[in-house]
Specification:
The protein has 81 residues and is an all-alpha fold. It has three helices and no strands. It is elongated and about 65 Å long.
Length: 81
Amino acid sequence: MSDKFNAYKKANEEVNKNNIAGLNVPLPSINSAKSRVKKQKTVMFTPSQIEKGETYAKQLNMSFSELMGYLIDNVEYNEEK
């Protein structure tokens, strides 16, 4: 058998042993740090705006959507009342 299978089998046995002993420990949630409710919105960009946005996002190691959200959250603007 492969080493991966043996490692999986050993881990599975350990989990089952802990469950029987009453040591249920909840696993940490991967997205528990900043869980946000997200909505979908369609916006229109020119091809050059999309190209620039994708370039900026790639340089910042973000998705295009994350970059737009960051800009909306962090760009200052004056609200006229």
